[in-house]
Design a protein that fits this description.
This protein is 57% helix and 6% strand. It is mostly helical and 185 residues long. It has a domain of 73 residues: Winged helix-like DNA-binding domain superfamily/Winged helix DNA-binding domain (Arc Repressor Mutant, subunit A). A three-stranded antiparallel beta sheet has the order 1-3-2. The protein is elongated.
């Protein structure tokens, strides 16, 4: 897969230099792909900050909130498994959502060591599609890409995630399911 990005010269103030022709740097397949991933990562973080300013939730917090809305009574361990992260990664996110009154923590009646998470009324109010969110952008992007190309992109991202997690178990086939779940959002 070859990604082509056109760069235009800009002056120090950030304005495009008049008369400058677009340049296509010859970076090669790996660096072109990495540059694209960096652009996606940057825009995810920017959108997340914007979401926090407008909705009061970051992108990761909203994703956790939406998943708890889909799976009431879910444990932190199960959430971590779905998101392919270590449970300790979610500790702060869950604590902040609970402190802000979006999540309620209950003890598991079958295993007191586990906590079950449910949305509060305040959390349920935010568990709905919203403009200017990462998920809205993903939904718009998914609607623009044919399913065959989407499958190839999912495969590439799954393989890359596995490579970046050297030593970790291969990712389960959850990424396609997560994309389908996002389409339903």
């Amino acid at each position: 897969m070859r990604v082509t990005v056109t760069l235009k010269a800009i002056d120090e103030a950030g304005a495009r230099v008049p008369g400058d022709e677009p340049q296509e740097p010859q970076l090669g397949e790996v660096l072109d792909f990495m540059r694209l991933l960096w652009a996606v990562d940057h825009r995810l973080k920017s959108t997340s900050k914007h979401m926090e300013a407008t909705l009061g939730l970051t992108g990761p917090q909203r994703l956790v909130l939406r998943l708890v809305g889909r799976f009431p009574g879910i444990t932190a361990g199960r959430l971590a498994h779905i998101l392919h992260v270590h449970p300790s990664t979610l500790t702060g996110v869950l604590r902040r959502l609970e402190t802000r009154g979006y999540l309620e923590r209950k003890s598991d009646p079958l295993d007191a060591r586990k906590a079950l998470f449910c949305l509060t009324e305040k959390g349920r109010a935010l568990d709905a599609p919203a403009a200017s969110t990462v998920e809205a952008a993903v939904q718009r992007a998914l609607s623009r890409v044919p399913k065959a190309k989407m499958a190839a992109a999912q495969e590439m991202l799954t393989v890359l995630a596995e490579e970046l997690g050297v030593g970790d178990a291969p990712l389960p086939q959850a990424l396609p399911g997560l994309v389908l779940a996002l389409r339903a959002v």
